[in-house]
Structure formats: structure tokens, C-alpha cells
Amino acid sequence: MKAEKKRVGIKAQIRAERERGRRVATAIFLAIVLASAALSAYFGYTILNPSTPLNSIEPSLQFKPDNPDPHLKAAIVDQLSLTFPNQSFIQTAANTLKQARYTVDYYSGEKVKVEFYRNLPVGDYGLIILRAHSTAAELEGKEFVETPVSFFTSEDYSQTKYVQEQLTDQLAIGSYSMPQPPYYFGITPKFVTTSMKGTFQNTIVIMMGCEGLSNNKMAEAFVGKGAKAYVSWDGSVSSSHTDQATTQLLKHLVTEGQTISQAVENTAREVGPDEVYNSILKYYPLASGNYAIQG
Amino acid sequence: MKVKRITLILLVFLLSTHIFQSGVQIQVLAQSVHVVPTSVYVKIEQLPYTVFVAIVATFDETGVKMDLGNVILSHNGDYTVEVNCIRVSGPTPGNFNFSVVTTLGIPDSGSHTVYVKEPALDRVLASEPFTMMPSDILFSEDGIVAGLKTYLNYTKSESKTVPPSLYKYTRFWVNSTSSLAESALALGIRLNNTLAETLSDVKLALSAPSDISFNVTPSVWTYGTLTPSASSVGFFNITAKDVPIGCYNFTYALNYTKAGGPYYIAGVIPVGVYLANSTWMAGNQTGIVDVISPFNDTGTFVFYNYTTIDTIDGYTLQLWQNTNRSLAFSEFTGTPHSPFWWVIIAAAIGAATSAVVEGVRQAATGEEFSLGKIGTAAAIGAAVGAGAALGLGALAGAAGVVTTKLIHVEGIVLVEAIKTVVEVEVALVENLIEKFTADSEGTDNEGCLKTIENEGSCHVDPAPEDKLGSNVKPEDGVGGLLVPVDKFGLLAPYIGFASTILVATVAAAIYVKRVKHRKEKQ
């Protein structure tokens, strides 16, 4: 009797053990499924929620002449307004353009984000003045290596934004003064080629930042996208010098109707190379040298 | 058991992926946190040979520090002083003040603005305009521009005993009784002919008040002929004997002939007379100078720990490492002027006393007499004096922490200012030596050497790069640098996503299999 009781007790114990094991396994399984679901939701949200693409960006200001020519539109993209503001340059440039019957859209620094550049061709501008930081150098370890020219946006860098563009080298990380934050998204020539919407219509692009023509990659990308000419510096430049030069360039190009080659040469002669960095104003492609803006 | 093991491995993998993700975030957060002060106070004062800038920032947390960064000169003549406001602990709420000081080299005459900027935050914290007064223009009339500089006995070092900010009252200072260090203080007056016609028979007469014991030698300097755009320098030795302290007017009279007719320009040069008594204690290599400024400010300077330092250009300069000083400011200079009025007065007194004590030291030790060294001592003394004024509470009205910090900062003031002054000094000396050499080779057409025995000196403006000073750099370019994109970091969410799907799938498969297996068993 005693022995039978004992046997039943052991079986019951084993059964109970198994049952407990089953419950633990089920609990672990449910925990894994729940954790997976939560993580999937998080990662899925991160991956599948790119920033909302915009079709156009409203300018911060618009300068309109008294008798605007509907075909003459210009943009001043003033990303430098955040670090090197120069209101008198903006006013002078806008006045020069207005006098030539251009309607001028002015974009202040905070508007100059990745989506802004993406939509730049959509604005249908005949003349784009990019007053922005730019560079053609990358810090690799302790060494600087030359890279295709990149423009700075004012959009803070994030690992979770524009992942595809980052993975495909369309966007870079830019810093004004290395090696310290803040870091911003930088636009590379690949972005111009791949992600910019629409095409430029014989646009003249004046890139006022550093090293815009220290190599031709960005210029090629713009011309490939339909720009007529791309004017920039072959090295670093200070803000006051580039402002002064661009004022002169606009006067020759827009007011006096000089060809690109004449305007660039005259400007270079008048303002000289940058006093500190010795950079010179150039244009691309050479074939655009004889092109003049039709007034 | 197998199932448990696989589940555990998957869990660990999942967890590590998540930790990696978090690591990326933490890495970003671990970078220095820059904070914005609640208010920033900027005080600017023109000192001899440079401009002094003090920045006091108030924070609403205590665990912060403010480091001085670059000082950037833009092409339009404005300066940006970068200050890094960094949280070192906390945030711990509370009021906290921090100050930094710097100098601006030698700005051009005219209007400038100093911007105080937090570079990491790209934010201008404050701006303050200032006007750099011309430090050497005596007059500009009828197309003739006259510049005035003071020299020590025609040596290549200019004396720096008068802060430009005091030009309203005095153009230079002389000791009541010319001492060894200041014997034959020389005025160099340069005339520039900006006219399109030649001036002939150009003579400048300089005279001191007749009833005071000044001696001006020569009393008339003959410049001769000044062709269009030409310039020439005339030198006048000034000595004094027991002249009471105060301000006096020297008078000048310029006579010249233009287009056959005589012309005449006259005016006054205000001169300050100070009194400095010095002693040199050879035993412990200590110098003591008591000084009374032309405005009745008094100061006692004790110089000790005489030493040598090497400048960046390979010069060896001798100076005192320590200076004890006490200064008392008169009604005239003390109130109601700004506290920085004290700084410039102290700088002037410092310059004078350093020059005096160096001269006395040289005489006492029998060292070969070096006026260049005295000039340098004067420059350093100016910095010491400026620092002294700060140490005495230039911003005493501000919060307690500021006062403490300023006293603490005094060392920095001295180090920075001395460095700047010494470098500018060296640059000037080099320029002058260069000019002197050129003149000696017979290329001079300005009469510098022709009329002064043995030694000569010409007014030479510092080169543009010297104007920048030691801590001012040119305007930054509108460029930047790229940093490589961490593509693995970018992929981390994808890896995480894929791994969670994988884990969920495997777990589901195992579970289904187990359930099926159990049913089959039953």
C-alpha cells in the first residue's frame, strides 16, 4: 500500500514538473514574441518613417521688381546667414537683380535643409546664388583627403534620417570646425545627380562657399542636371571676400550683360584673390564662357 | 535543453544588438555639452599697443566653465572672440559668473565691433563696438599729415608710456626729472605731404613752456623739401629737471613754402609729467618704484625674481617674474570714468616704472646699458600695470565670483598680455632693424640717419601680420570638413529589425514543433 502510494506520488511529481516546464517555456516564448513585436515596431518605425518629402519650400523673403519679367527668377540661398550674416550683401545683390527685372527668392539659413536642395531645380530659377559653406576635404583619421565638393545644409545630422541617401554617399556629414559638433548634413554631387527633382533650365549657379571648384565633381553634377554654368572658388575663401566678389560678379553678369568669362575675369581682376586663402574665382564648363544672360 | 540554449543565445544576440544601438546614442550624448550664458558683459579698452577685451558671462548653473577660443579678425575689421561655454558637471542650478580676457593686436584706427561667439553652438552671445583712436596723428591740415611717436633716445624701441585713450589729456609722459632710463626721450614727428605740389623750406619748431624746466633739443627741425607723397621724420630730445607733476602744453609751429607763398600751421602737444623714484636692492635683486601720475594717481611697484624668458622668435628677454604693487587712483581718473580707466592708467604707470627700474637695475649692476631692453621692460610693465588694476578690482561692482575670478585671471592677463606685447615688440624691433639697415645702406631719403649721430630711428608701421597680435587669426573661410559616415551604425536598425524577425520566426517554429511533438506523444 505504502509502495503504491509512493509510486503515484512520484508520477504526480514528474507530471507537475513537466507542467511547470511547459508553463515556463510558454512564458519565455510569449516574452520573446512580445519583445520581438515591440522591437520590430520600433525598428520598423525607424526604417519606414523617412522625413516627409516636400514638393517645394517657401522662401523667407521675396524681392519683386516694379515690372517683373515672369521668365526671370533668381534664388539667394543664404545658408551662411547662420554663421556669417551679411544683410548688406543680400540687399545689394537683390537690388542688382531687381533692377534687371528679376524676382528674387531669398532663403535664409534655417530653410536650407536636405529637402530644400532636393527641390531646388523645381523652383525654375535662371540664377541661383548659393551662399553656403562647402568643402572638398574629409578628415580620415588624422589626415585630410580630397573629396568631391559638398555643400552644407543647416539640418542637424542624424543617423536615422535619409539613411538610403547616406548609404549611397549622396549625403555626407559636415562640420564647420573639426573635430567638433555640431554636425550637419552635406549635399554631395551624387545627391544632385540622383535625388534632386526635375532639371535646371540653363541656370547659372554661383557657389559662394569654399572650394566649390577645387574639383569639378559638383560642377559636373549641376551641368549634368541642366545648369548652364557653375561659378565658384578654387580654394577656401572668407565670407567678406566672397560677398564682395559676388556683388561685382552680379553687376557684370546681370547689369552689364557681360559673358560669364568676361564677368568672372573682370571680377577676379577687381577683387583679386582672397587675401588669406589666395583662392581665385573660376567657372565651369569652359564652353559656357561665351554665355551671357539675356536681359 | 536544446530549446532553452537556443532561446538564450537568441536573447543574448538580440540584447547585444539593442545595446549596440544604445551605444550609438550614448556616444552622441557623451560629447561636451555647451551652454548659453544668461547674460554676457563685454568691456573693451584701448591700451598702448593693443586693445584689451574682458568678457564676463553669467550662467544659471554652477558647474560650467568658459574657455577662450580663437580671436578672429574679419576683412571688415571686426573681431570675433570665441568662447566655449562648457558644462563640466550637473546641471546644478545657481548663479555663476565666469570671465576671460584677451587682446586684439593692433587694430586699424576707426570703428570696429567685437562679437563674442560660442563656436560650438554657432551663436553670437554679445557684441560691443569700439573705436580705435589713431595713436600717432598730431595734426592733419592743408594736406600735411603729421604723425607723432615717442622714442627712447633714438633707439629702435618706442616708449609706451601713454595710453592712446589718454590722448585727450596728454600725448606722452615724461619723468619729472629725466632719469638714466629716460634720458633724452625723443619725439619723432613725421610729416607726410599728401598734396600734388612740392613743399619747400619746411621747418618745425617745438617749444616747452618757458617757465618750466624742460629742455627741447633741437628747438627747430629742418625737413627741407617735401615732394608730393614724400614724408620725413624730425626728432626732438626732451629732458626735464624737477618739473612738478601735471599736464603741460608744448607748442609747435610749422613753416613752409608752397607755390611761392609762405604758410604756417601751429598747435599744442599736451604732455604729462609724472614722478618716479626708484631704488635697486642688488642683494636680493629687487627694484622698488614709487610713482605719481600726471593726474595724481599713486602707485608703488616692487619688482623681484629677475629672470629671462625666450620669445617665440628666439629672443631672450629679461624681466621680473613677480611684481607687488599698490595703486590709488585720483578723483580725476577714479570716478566717474569706467573701471577700465584704471586699467589704462595702471598700464601707463606700469610702463613708466618698469622702464625706470630696468634703467636703475642696469646702472646698479654695471650691465651694458641697453635702451632696447628698457623699452621692452616698459612694454611688459604696461601689461603688468594693466593686470594690477584688474587685480585691484576693475570689476569690483560685479558679483563676488567675478572678482575672485578676475584676481585668479590676473595671471592669464599677465601671461597673455606680456606674450602679446613681447611679440609685437619683437616684430617692431625687427621691422625697425630692417629699416635701419636699409637706411644705413644709403637708401634713406628721409633724413633719418643724415642728421642724427650714430643711431637713427624711423617711424615704421607694423606689418599687417603683426597687427594681428599673437592671438588673433584671420577670418575663417566659409568652408568646413566632412566626416566619414558610419555606415555600420546606419545599418544597425536594419540589423536589429532583421534579427528580431529572425528570432520571432525561429521561436515560433520551435514552439509549433514542440506543441506538435507533445500532441503526437499524447
Oligomer designation: heterodimer
Helix content of chain B: 25-40%
Number of helices of chain B: 7
Beta strands of chain B, count: 22
CATH architecture of the largest domain in chain A: 3-Layer(aba) Sandwich
Largest sheet of chain A: 7 strands, mixed
Q: Secondary-structure map with pairings?
A:
The complex is a heterodimer of chains A (295) and B (522).
Chain A: H1 2-48, E1 61-63, E2 73-78, H2 87-99, E3 103-108, H3 114-118, E4 127-131, E5 134-140, E6 143-156, H4 163-167, E7 171-175, E8 183-187, H5 189-194, E9 204-207, H6 217-224, E10 229-233, H7 239-255, H8 260-271, E11 281-284
Parallel strand pairs in A: 2-3, 2-4, 4-9, 9-10
Antiparallel strand pairs in A: 1-3, 5-6, 6-8, 7-8, 10-11
Helix pairs in contact in A: 2-7, 7-8
Chain B: H1 2-29, E1 39-47, E2 50-61, E3 64-73, E4 79-87, E5 93-103, E6 110-118, E7 123-132, E8 137-141, E9 144-152, E10 172-175, E11 185-193, E12 199-207, E13 214-217, E14 220-226, E15 231-240, E16 246-258, E17 261-281, E18 286-292, E19 298-310, E20 316-328, H2 331-334, H3 339-365, H4 371-391, H5 400-443, H6 464-467, E21 472-474, E22 481-483, H7 487-521
Parallel strand pairs in B: 3-21, 4-6, 10-17
Antiparallel strand pairs in B: 1-2, 2-5, 3-4, 6-7, 8-9, 9-11, 11-15, 12-14, 12-16, 13-15, 16-17, 17-18, 18-19, 19-20
